[in-house]
Amino acid sequence: MALLMKRLFDLVLALFISIVLALPILVIAFVIRLTSSGPAFYWSSRVGRRNVIFKMPKFRTMHIGTPTVPTHLLANSSQYLTPVGSFLRKSSLDELPQLWSILVGDMSFVGPRPALFNQADLIALRKQYGVDNMVPGLTGWAQVNGRDELSIPLKVQYEVKYLQRQSFWFDVKILGLTFLKVVRRAGVSH
Length: 190
Description:
The protein is of the alpha+beta class. It has helices at 2-20, 22-35, 85-90, 98-104, 120-129, 152-165, 168-184, and strands at residues 41-47, 53-59, 108-110, 115-116, 137-139. Helix 1 (2-20) packs across helix 4 (98-104) and helix 5 (120-129) packs parallel to helix 6.
């Protein structure tokens, strides 16, 4: 029953936000196309629930041909950013297309952030602690407690705590804290 309620909450909220932000989403897509060559969206192969790979959309913030690794592993990552890429990342606007992944059920609003398909150490640790059984989220307990600064073991510790404490009100708290972090641009390293 709790999973059904969470899914219903995700659907209603994702539909509402999609309608309210439809025009800004179109404007951002247009600006990306105007300022750099290539598509407005980047479809990233991500690890979902039970380690199933799915395609997650984001606004494209990097130039075409950028290596497919976590940004913090790129030497001089700023050289790969598009003219509006840094702003989109720091404001978290690059995440808006993930509303699609929430609508189709690949993601939830709250859960562990979906790993890149090549983050074997993170995937293995999540599997060891059962975190891989959760639907990945747009935000999560690890994100509001450090985001980019967390080591992988510490990130998984926060995800395990979320797994143990999951509830509607805990999700609401995480969403509220996420909103505050985004407004303050806290914990963003790139």
